[in-house]
Amino acid sequence: MSETPGHERQEVVFAGKRIRQFSTLSFDEVLAKLRARVGEATIAGVVGLPGTREEFETRMEEYAGDSGFMLFSQIDHGAWIEKYGIKRRLVRWILGNPLIAITMLQHDYTAGLFVPIELLLAENDGGAGCNIVYVLPSSLIATDAANSRLAAAAMALDAKLEALVASAVAA
């Protein structure tokens, strides 16, 4: 992708792949399993870390849970949609890891539009079980078929996310 100064506009059309993984486990059980595998950090805290690259990497490894991810933000949609008559527990997570992100950003800075990643934990109708919805990262990030290193890094992110989700929904 060449960059041209001026007012030229470039448009890239692509299709994201949305995945929904169902579980018979309760919302609370799945949320607890996710929390057990994901560390926590704030984006401001990560960006503002002083020190060398090595010190930064050490700190990121400390922040990340055993899944390799850290939770940056949580939006509890369920807390406000009730005002509109919708009774559903619904939580959106923004999660990632700069050490994972750099594996893609070094090949295409526009990957920064899709990292960190997101998932949505939703209680099923009637409260029986739940589901996790996410967009497969590689379907958003690796849109240039010629960039095999970017595709490989994005597919590695897919595998990490899919492993986290699978471990959370397993009975």
Automatic annotation (TrEMBL):
Q: Where is the DUF302 domain positioned along the sequence?
A: 75-127
Judging by the UniProt lineage, the source's domain of life is Bacteria
Spell out the CDD domains in the cross-references: DUF302
From the UniProt annotation, give the residues forming the signal peptide: none
Listed SUPFAM superfamilies: TT1751-like
Residue stretches in coiled coil:
none
What is the protein's name according to its record?
A: DUF302 domain-containing protein
